[in-house]
Amino acid sequence: MTTDFDQLVLDKAPGGVIVTDRHGKVAHWTGGAEQLFGYTANEAIGRYIYELTGESTADWQAFLAELARNGGAYDYEGLRRQKSGAPIFVNVASKIVQDGPERKEFILLSKNDITRQKALRDAKHVEAKYRDVLESTPDGIVMANSTGLIVLANTQAERLFGYEPGELKGQPIEVLLPERYRNGHISHRSNYFVQPRSRTMGAGLELYGLRKDKVEFPVEISLSPITTEEGKLVMSAIRDISERRKAEQKFRGLLESAPDAIVIVNRQGDIVLVNSQAEQLFGYERRELLGKRMEVLIPQRFAAGHPEQRSSFFHAPRPRAMGAGLELYGLRRDGTEFPVEISLSPLETEGEILVSSAIRDITERKRIERALQQQKLELERANKAKDLFLASMSHELRTPLNAILGFAQLLNNEKLPVTELQRKTFMGHILKAGEHLLTLINEILDLAKIESGTVMLSIEPVGLAELLQEAHRMVDVAADKRGVRVIVAPSVDMYVKADRTRLKQIVLNLLSNAIKYNREYGAVVVDCAEAGVDKIRVSVQDTGPGLKPEQLDALFQPFNRLGQEGGTEEGSGIGLVVTKRLVELMGGAIGVQSTPGAGSMFWVELPATAAPESARAAIAAAAMPAAEQPAQQRGGLPLLLYVEDNPTNLRLVEDVLSFRSDLRLITCTDGVQGLDMARRQLPDILLLDMNLPGLSGREIQRQLREDPATASIPVLAISANAMRKDIDAALDAGFFRYFTKPIDINALQDGLDAALAIVRSNGKASAL
Questions:
Q1: Quick one: 639-763 is in which CATH superfamily?
Q2: Where do the PAC domain residues begin and end (predicted)?
């Protein structure tokens, strides 16, 4: 078997043999070339060699020019790049060859790795030129060429990393790095040679070196490029900062143990150190703050003036509180502000003076201060109110006492010719003043019990129907004396959680006031209705003079009778105060709506509850609709049909109309039944609730308008929908009047009067 020595030499010769065309496209790629550059033949053939080895098109054109200038054969050295990105120095022997009868030209390239030889040459050159200078520096100095091989390490560097003299020469710089950093360092090193400049390595990062014995230690490194005859080198000045790091760790431990947030900045305002309390306080992670300006932690309105204040501190640094007497605020990452207290302290380091800011969130302290200030104001107001209360109470007690003592002295004076009639009159005044004094004392005692928290309540289901009727009977005499009508709406199915005795006291107080301060021959309407979820509202509406806005503001102040002190009506000015406190103790609320000249409506809202089992049968019976009244029995009076499914509202209107002698009332509780009754009875006036079971009030009105027999009947609406759009829509649809709940009795009477006027003008009523 004949050995093909040509092929053997081509494949096995040291280095790599590559054949390209004149454009640089690879035609042959030996195993040596694969070992040299890392590409297989399949990966390389067909591609341009300058793309594979880290060159440019311009580099290839320059090579062709040199090849032609040297007669088709050219030897040179150059920096190339492997597939991994690692740089290598190669020695290249190139020659133009021709193949075949067509004499096609190829370029034969033989390349050998001389990276280590280049490093040793560089080392010899640098050794002679820089050794003496570098030995005098206190830091470890390591110089490497563009392939990352060490060409010089001074004695301090060899001692620092634990190597013998000359042992580092020609080794990759990565032997001085921990294993976890080596792969990334190769690309960083290559990028540095693209744009070499003097700078600190890994600014803001923690860097570590690796000794020969595999022990790591923290380092600080500065890089400087050096241009030599052999090419560019990089000089690394390396300093062991183990002791400094220990001191920093100790200092950081002190910072972390501090209760306050600590932020340390330099003269330029850059943040150089923060503790974990600062991270929590401002909502940043430590890495997000380091290197940032201090102003990121300050609200925008203060940030502009902060650099000037910082410069002022560095001009005369001393420990002090920042912004003494000023309101200071910090700014969190989420944009929220919070009040802070800041203490400043200068820190002297090796190279510069820093300022340490101890920052404390005083939000809670400010809240407490505000609460204390508010409490102080409330105490001052309470003291003033107490003084005013005592003065007012003294006046109110002396007034009836003055009458009692005065008339008693007249009776006791035997020298005065007092007649029997005068004696009875004087005794009547004494009794009246005594009763007033007793009422006043009882109300004062009630108020004292409430304010001291000693009042006892028995909360239970209380039926409003029975209670309101009791209260009605108790004020009947007073109402009759003044000619005031008291109308109580039925509320048989309504129960509230309350103390029965105290609730009756509340209702009596409101009724007494409504009667006492009403106009002559006025009216008082007591109504009950649901108010929101699980609430019932009891309202007492009068037709008195009403209250002005400034009177409403002072309504629930003790002994404030709202200008009635000089009037004929006796009163203490405490009743409403006691009423309000009792309502609130029972979990309710009290309010008032008033129109000067028209009257007032006081209301009390209390939690609703279910009726006791024993009362449910009575409730069901009371809720039955009134019997239909035949048209033949209406006695010639105009007939009013009221369709309403709420028994309370039904009874209220029945009671209101019981005082009228010009109308006859029939009722029903269902929409379908109401429409049928309207068609059969042909009432003169129709009063409709808008939300009825079976058929809505709006639909009843529409069908009646379409029927000629019922089209002319005035239809009045009653609804809990008080929105303006609902009212306008009903009026536009042809309703004669629209009343909102709770019903204004006077407005209802006026509306009925107007409807009767229409009926009379049409001549529809039989006896007018």
A1: Response regulator (3.40.50.2300)
A2: 203-253, 324-374
